[in-house]
Amino acid sequence: MQIRTLIEEKFSEPTPCNGHCQQQSKMRFLTGDKDLLVCFVCPAGYISRVIAYGEEVNVRTFKEYLSKLLSGALSLEAEDIRVATRYIWDLGVKSDKDMVFRVAYWTQNYRRTKSDNPNRISLFLCSNCNSPFLQPFTSTATLCKNCR
User: Are 105 and 82 in contact (CB under 8 A)?
Assistant: First the structure.
């Protein structure tokens, strides 16, 4: 079974928005290539979590990707990125391998960087072009600068 199919089947359930609102966040694919990147985004576009999936996940590359998105506006340390391994018994799937895939994830409202400042810069997802962009936490814009 392909990793993308497993992700869609096992991890696509809506979850509460983490740190922004009380609405449900849905999984959205940022890339669908060999290295799968997804995010969980609420209806307002706030990205609560960014996740990398793959047979092997290059944490350094994932951190570089996040750093580029955050453009220095949000603090990012190596310990902010969590890494996990998913196994056949964990996913309830049949496979000739014990390990199914690896996961690296970053949560935007992580306790180390948690802020109650209503004007803090936060990561959002454009509702038109599906690109992550930065704006103030309380902003109601759902479009990035290129799509406005």
Answer: yes
